Task: structure prediction
Amino acid sequence: MTSVPESLRGAHILVVEDDPRMRHTLEMLLSQDWRVEAVGDGLAAVAAAVRQVPDLVLCDLLLPGLDGFGVLHHLRADPRTSLVPVIAVSGLDQEEDRIRALEAGAADFLIKPFSERELRARVTTQLEMTRLRREALERHSEARFRVLVEAIKDYAICLLDSEGRIVSWSAGAEAIHGYAAEEILGRPFSLFHLREPGSTPEQALRQAATEGRFEDEGWRLRRDGSRFWANTVITPIHDEGGPLRGFAKITRDLTEKKRAEEEIAWLNADLERRVRERTAELEAANAEMEAFAYSVSHDLRAPLRAIDGFSQALTEDCQDRLEPSAVDHLRRIRAAARRMAELIDGLLDLSRVSRAEIRRQEVDLSGMARQVADGLQRTAPQRRVEWAIADGLTVTGDPRLLRLVLDNLLENAWKFTGGRPSGRIEVGARSNGDGPAYFVADDGAGFDMAYAGKLFGAFQRLHSEREFEGTGIGLATVRRVVNRHGGRIWAEAEVGRGATFFFTLPASPPESGSS
Result:
């Protein structure tokens, strides 16, 4: 009897034979040294080979249904079984069958009847050739793998046996961990791990074996005792038959990335601290400004009321005893006091607009404009002004602040059309590419566009007080309101032909400070 090498014992052989007695005989002869699975037809053979890939197939050519040539075709066409050696068996010693079987992919040909010795010799030879082929492929693959691994310096690549001992060591591993190959081979990979609660190297191997992959980041040790932040991936390596052979472990040094992340986190924390401090400072400054505004309002209004009151009393009580020039002086004093009061009101409005919290809601701009227009018309019912206010102007914003916008823009339009026997004031909207631009237009005095840059600055005036009264604060207030809503404002005008003020109000702009 042919002696079977120990390395070949236990191989899986698939026997395909339709004759029950012959199938039983083959099974008995081969099962002494190998694991044998026997089936009686071609379809069953293909299904069995796919279900568990055998190390060798012994296949009769004359089978019912799918014959041996068909089995060969299916096995060679499937990548899972394309390299499995097949010994074709036939009861007819015909050259044509032998050539056809070999061309179909058979590794050998066996003619019935055959002796046990010949059968075992041919099976042993094919199994040995398969083993040698596999070893050659493994050596070639390992050589290519080593060339590839040695070329990669940024990763520590090593192979572990099933117990976690290091069996191969790359140049990148030496550079990152600090160990030479002769120092580390055979030692456990747990050597690199810090002992941390809840995580052990053994757990990493168990997870890789059961789930097919293990990955984590953490501190690892170098040979000199220093630490580095590592990303580690461990994957299992299995033999062709399925048993665990070992693990591939890839480690990348991410210390610089970790330090950069920590620095960014520190900078963010420092920035948040500074923002909190600055916010507290601004809140304190706002509180002081609020107190100052109240003080200004109270302390300045009181003497103004006294000046205005006493001037009025002198005028009423002593007018018949005063020279006309003195009465005129009293009138001028009262007018100056009223103007000073208006300036104080304007400054307070400007201050409040910059600090007020914006409470957004849907605002009927058309209805609000009509309310302002009605109020202005009641102050001078005799004036002939055509009001053209578009319907359906709806915006999102703070109604208190938007009322300031319309108050100032419509009062300006009312004021600058006052020198004409009749005037026209229009409120509407037009497309502005990225949304509607709302406008207030009049056909009044207008202004020279060369001075438009001064228009929205506090205390800036384009007309003298003798021509038109005003404090020069209204348009500055309007600009702050619009800016705080995330919009913008601009004007177009022509001297003697009126002016149009445009402003945008985005639906949901970011909150911004005063500008």
In short: The CA atoms of residues 409 and 440 lie 7 Å apart. The first strand starts at residue 12 and ends at 16. DSSP finds 13 helices and 17 strands in the chain.
